[in-house]
């Protein structure tokens, strides 16, 4: 029996058995189109339709949002989302498309939204019927998030929004956006407020979404332009001027820290069809011709592959520590560390795959001669997004050093 099953309560054990049986009986058919490696690169309606149908089916079966109260669309359970995630991971089911909604918007709305707003928005978020995006970064405000300038001007019980958000994943499908706005230009952090805004219904009437083509050729990113978009004050989360504090809730969940203290709703827990593990590197090395043999015959490459395997094993051990209450002396330490390590290990693995492939790493999707269908170059290019998203690796190290280890602030 797996370690996690040994720790299940009777309620959780019954839920695990039910979840496993449902997944086995309801595994979705093969997709009619190629799926991207993560939901952040969904480009076409066909991809989205397939994945939304899967999330809706899982939600109807009680496998999404199950730790949230029933009043907001959940099942009122305790630590059962983790079990659902584990079972879907084990079965290698498709990922959910509403990753930003599940991982960031749901906990933020739950903790900071008015009751009527939670009851209105969260059920359709959990089911995947409403896709969400995140409006944080701007052309002049990325790592320095508190410098955002997209402005909301109050007019009675309404707010009029003008400005420019960028690097907005899934905005081309999103019904709703969580957004950090400036409501007072005279102060920095205290001049920020946090809203949820409907963007799909306002396309062409206050909202413009423009795709940004990445170096992979995919268009998961977008820029979003606001021109006199009017929203009701009921869409504001928490008090006026408390946007920075609300944003920290969002970022804590994006970085993984929120999982220690909040209901879970599910997210990008499922493996993509392309594995980027060290074991996949071993298969690739054996399949890659090199100097009359294979790349696996190269002792230097073998050593580098084993180093990646060691990093993976260490990371898995580190993740297990988050289940030990006595080790959670600082709620951000392990999650921030895990986010940093996970993104850099992934980048190291895909980078090593490029070295194993050699000249063949220049072959891309659609080339019949590309090893593993050209997925490794795609993974390597996408990996840079994960060392930037939710705060760059440099930002993560600063937070760990200053707030966890108590080191002096960098200049």
From TrEMBL:
Domain Acyl-CoA dehydrogenase/oxidase N-terminal: from-to ranges: 9-129
Annotated GO CC locations: plasma membrane
Family as reported in the entry's similarity comment: Belongs to the acyl-CoA dehydrogenase family.
Keyword field contains Chloroplast: no
Pfam families: Acyl-CoA_dh_1, Acyl-CoA_dh_M, Acyl-CoA_dh_N
Stated name of the protein: Acyl-CoA dehydrogenase
Cofactor(s) in the UniProt record: FAD
Keywords for this protein: FAD, Flavoprotein, Oxidoreductase
InterPro entries xref list: Acyl-CoA_Oxase/DH_mid-dom (IPR006091), Acyl-CoA_Oxase/DH_mid-dom_sf (IPR046373), AcylCo_DH-like_C (IPR036250), AcylCo_DH/oxidase_C (IPR009075), AcylCoA_DH/ox_N (IPR013786), AcylCoA_DH/ox_N_sf (IPR037069), AcylCoA_DH/oxidase_NM_dom_sf (IPR009100), Mycobact_Acyl-CoA_DH (IPR052161)
One GO MF term: flavin adenine dinucleotide binding
Domain Acyl-CoA dehydrogenase/oxidase C-terminal intervals: 241-405
Boundaries of every Acyl-CoA oxidase/dehydrogenase middle domain copy: 133-228
PANTHER family for this protein: ACYL-COA DEHYDROGENASE, ACYL-COA DEHYDROGENASE FADE34
